[in-house]
Design brief:
single chain; 238 residues; mainly alpha; two-stranded antiparallel ribbon; 4 strands; 70% helix; globular
Length: 238
């Protein structure tokens, strides 16, 4: 059984890993695009998927395991988490938030071997070094400080989640509206619509510059025939 203090420490470590993941995404965007892009599903500077992955392997594995075991579990676990999150988000919001289609050895564009191997190496660092370090560090803090920091960060996180989900639902409605058009035009039109809806929505566009809607065949509209055209056709038949 985990004590309340342990739960609070786990939560703080989750926040730290989520922030580190966000910082890594921002750094990658700077290196690849030569500009700062505020990456992340939430408005704040965190990527929860990194926190979930780091806490999962930290809970499943101990530093006593060999690096090979940690690497293999991290590769499989990170790939599974990333695929499930990508699939669920696409089904719920009809938007693909990342795409590895151009990467070699990818699976439906949701995961790829390169990313999985990177997470495998990170898993070794997390299990062997960083998680034990964070636990030792937080256990040296007063319990009151741990609880206070956890409550404050949890409150901020819940507010961020609520506001971000409100914006994402708005994106879902927008995508649903423009899905009547050609599929290859949806992504650009979604960006144009969002850019006109305020600073927070522009933050969302900046966070996901490559977002693309779920690939679904758009329904073809049957052209409406006016009453005049119907009369003309009937005369021609006669």
């Amino acid at each position: 059984m985990f004590s309340l203090e342990d739960i609070a420490i786990w939560f703080l470590i989750f926040i730290i890993y989520s922030f580190i993941g966000w910082a890594m995404e921002v750094l990658i965007s700077i290196l690849q695009r030569k500009k700062l892009i505020n990456r992340g599903f939430l408005i704040g500077p965190i990527c929860p998927i990194y926190g979930v992955g780091a806490l999962t392997i930290s809970a499943l594995l101990s530093p006593d395991y060999s690096p090979l075991v940690i690497f293999c579990v991290s590769v499989v676990g990170s790939a599974l988490i990333e695929y499930v999150v990508s699939f669920v988000m696409e089904q719920v919001f009809r938007v693909r938030w990342w795409d590895y289609s151009k990467k070699p050895f990818n699976l439906n564009g949701r995961i790829c071997l390169e990313a999985a191997f990177s997470f495998g190496v990170l898993g070794i660092l997390i299990v062997k070094f960083t998680t034990p370090f964070f636990f030792g560090l937080f256990h040296s803090f007063p319990i009151f400080a741990i609880y206070l920091a956890s409550v404050i960060l949890l409150t901020i996180l819940l507010c961020d989640v609520a506001l971000s989900l409100w914006l994402i639902v708005d994106v879902r409605v927008t995508v649903g509206t423009v899905q009547r058009d050609a599929t290859d035009e949806i992504s650009e039109r979604v960006r144009e619509i969002l850019m006109g809806k305020g600073k927070l929505n522009r933050r969302l566009v900046g966070a996901f510059p490559n977002q693309s809607p779920s690939k679904k065949t758009p329904r073809r509209k049957t052209p409406k025939v006016s009453s005049t055209q119907k009369k003309t056709k009937s005369k021609n038949v006669v």
